[in-house]
């Protein structure tokens, strides 16, 4: 860890932790969506929308703090990248839930539950990792595991696409379902972006 002579603004750590905790809330709502009746999905989507708004507020708070802080705990561009990637995760999860409701999807294809399970695990790991930014300790296993999960998500996504294009769905249904599974894949990519940013920060601070 580099030795610093100047004090640093430490509230960023709490804000990153709060943002990651909110993502866990979003992942739980995704899991809830899987087992919900069609009639209950609109209410879940409303709660997800509220969580996404909370995520936006958390991101804006980080940006405000960044713009008003003379000394930051690590490089400004990394703070911005980390906050933006965390925000992207919530945006993608909220979009997926909203599309399920808007498209009146009766049944999600087999394999979506695996996508969501991967996202839920990545959310847990991310929430556990954020407090370690204070010391930069015990983070290596985090970004290795999130990268492994993203590779797993890629494989699940490819299998889902193969399933959707096997001729059992009509063309309109394929378009709807493909958009949903693509957005869930983007959420997995965003988790990897967070992990890669954390790795970059840790390398710089070592």
From TrEMBL:
Pfam families assigned to the protein according to its UniProt record, in alphabetical order: PhoU_div (PF01865)
SUPFAM superfamilies from the UniProt entry: PhoU-like
Family statement drawn from the similarity comment of this UniProt entry: Belongs to the UPF0111 family.
Protein name per Swiss-Prot or TrEMBL: DUF47 family protein
Native species: Streptomyces bambusae
